[in-house]
Amino acid sequence: MEYRNDILCHWQDLYQKTRCNPNMIDIQPELEWHMRPHLLDFLVDSHGGLGLKQETLFLAISIIDRYTSKRVVYKRHYQLVGCAALWIASKYHDCKSKIPTLDELKLLCCHAYESHMFVQMEMHILSTLDWLVDCSTCDLYVDAYLNDVKTIYRLDPNVRMVALYLCEVSLFYKHMIEFSSADLAFCAVRLAMVVCNMNPGELYPGPYHDTPVTELSRCLDLMARACTSPPRSLHVKHSAPNGCAVDLVRLHVNGKARPVTPMNSTGYEPRQLPSPAVEGAYGVNKGINTGVPMVATVATVPAVSMAPMTMTPPYTPEPHYDNYGQYYYGDETEDDYDYDCEEY
Questions:
Q1: Where are the beta strands (DSSP E) in 65-176?
Q2: Structure pTM?
Q3: Which family is annotated (predicted)?
């Protein structure tokens, strides 16, 4: 329990270091926002097909956003960036046997890219991010909020599933990227409790962030609108027989709220985080209603200071062969290799 505040401070520091600026993505010369849902559909399908962990998907999308806000990415490399980001995230979160191989990545992209292109893009992403891969993703905050709430009353085991579904839906939309992971997680958990016919009155923003209530109200409204028409990949992922989040949201929207299912021994227990005392652990922002509030008028979120974009390699060069039959790529020359002529 003594480490709880340290964990929250670490998450906040990570957010400040890894925050994405959508304004920088806006100035991409070839990428358009309407391409993003297609890439994320591809990532969700690939993530599910490979059987990777839930947190891997959130981290992969974060890596894509951070990279595209710092580097100019050409349209023909967009899928390559997505696959490389998923590859990096899987190495960070998944066990070794689950990490996709280069052959699997090539198959996912229908052999549009060669093996060395994935390796090259992986190194380019890591160097662009200064090797800072980790970030405070939505799933971390969802579990933190659920740990707080379950100290008050028993949770419906579907709350976490619906909350993660709402977080995933939010990541598809440009106007949701400006909200922090803590904001999205808070709104997702609150809406999930409403969908599961639970009273979220005891769920407060808490010590995770100090976002104004008006901002959270706007986030809640945008999320509630977005979840009624999920992207294709998420509709498949969270519909029967794979899940029931889409059905639960649809029942709630149609006014057919499902009775509360009490937590039992088979229900999901969120990841443990030391829980503070409920009284006095939260701030003064307690003015959010149980239902989804109306859109509030808020000031524009200040832009994050960030260096201007730098160009990625305009193309992934084909290998060039030297006099010894060895090959090298783009930025390298024969002079970069020190050969012992006696060996040849």
A1: 71-72
A2: 0.74
A3: Belongs to the cyclin family.
